[in-house]
Known about the structure:
The chain has 183 residues and is α+β, with helices and mostly antiparallel strands. The chain has 2 domains: 2-26 and 172-178; 34-164, CATH 2.40.50. The protein has helices at residues 2-16, 34-41, 51-54, 72-75, and strands spanning 19-22, 57-62, 65-70, 81-90, 96-103, 120-130, 136-144, 154-164, 175-178. The chain has a 5-stranded mixed barrel with strand order 4-5-6-8-7. A two-stranded antiparallel ribbon has the order 1-9. The chain is globular and about 60 Å long. The two termini are 26 Å apart.
Amino acid sequence: MRRILVLFAALGALAAAEVTAFTTGIPAAGLPSASDYSGTVLPEKAGIVSWRTLAQVQPVKVGGKMVPEFSKDILALDRKSVKIQGFIIPLDMGDKQKRFLLTAVPPHCSFCLPAGPDAVVEVQARDAVKYGFEPIVVEGRFAVLKDDPAGILYRLADAEFVGPATAAPAAAAPVVRLPAPTR
């Protein structure tokens, strides 16, 4: 009985204490889209297709089915050789990948995509690419997929590793003190 009273006292003290949380400056309107956030992680560079460009797609209803409607900028990239920078999500076992996903933002879970379909490109590489946590640049033949059964919107075929991408310097997250909860 005494242990239960001590536990309740500790929980009560914890509830009355000031709570410390980290924030990344999330605006009141909510989190940014992956394409907007990627600009803070991977600065846009000339000669590399930006994730902001790839985000120019909207779902539209056609014949009782939702399909992607791509901007003219995206359609102009179809079947062209392009460079894209991003983070690898491996699809096969091993430290070298011939087929993988490239994403606009770093993955946060081994089992989850970190963003929506407009922030993911399926890559089919000529030669295996070494998997790592740092962003890379790849170049290949870009394809706009209008009706992929897996929901993938973009594919980069015959891709080659160009080199590492330059990530933006990490900014320290400010510490914010939250008031104690009220009853």
